[in-house]
Amino acid sequence: MTLQDISARLSAAERAANRAPGSVDLIAVSKVQPDSRVRDVLVEGHRSFGENRVQEAMGKWPGFRDEFAGVTLHLIGPLQTNKARQAVELFDVIHTLDRPKLAQTLARLAQERGQSPDVFIQINTGAEPQKAGILPESADSFIAEVRALNLPLLGLMCIPPVEEDAAQHFEMLAKIAARNDLSGLSMGMSDDFETAVAHGATHIRVGSAIFGARISPH
Ligand SMILES: *Cc1c(COP(=O)(O)O)cnc(C)c1O
Q: What stretch or stretches form a coiled coil here (predicted)?
């Protein structure tokens, strides 16, 4: 697969779901990929990228940004509170707001800096103990809490359990978003992004299908 193949499949999925062309943001997940592959995708003109570790992103993106204008960088992995400052300085969008303490830290940084990355709240739709995210039953109250802190909240994000049908998780996420008047839905990866688009995804996070297999996945 290449960026072109995935873009074509995304366009077809948008059409099939009666979504406007280009309405879904294709985030190319470049974690652990060699710089040369990331550069190829930048040279092709793509500008939306996702990373899941702050440290790793700090190593490669300032340089790429000097070279390629207009990059939008998304943090899609867990954010430790002690890395929050570095994260807000580097990323345009944080998809993994998953606890009150992090919300408070991001709000404090936003006040101090006079700006903030946009945020998605991560929902643990499968209630998996090992997975980050707000439990579905606590979603409404946490959304209210984040709004009260004046963080620029775009919507909700989920990573469905590997063994389960992703569609039911996408549906649940879309329902929680709809009843809270949130339009952003960050859901869908290499194996299920078309299903996610059918369920209303506004941001899909696609890594291996664009770049090839990761050498050491995380
Ligand atoms: C790695 C990762 C992706 C991309 O996964 P692929 O299966 O390679 O498309 C998407 N979302 C998150 C949160 C990830 O960590």
A: none
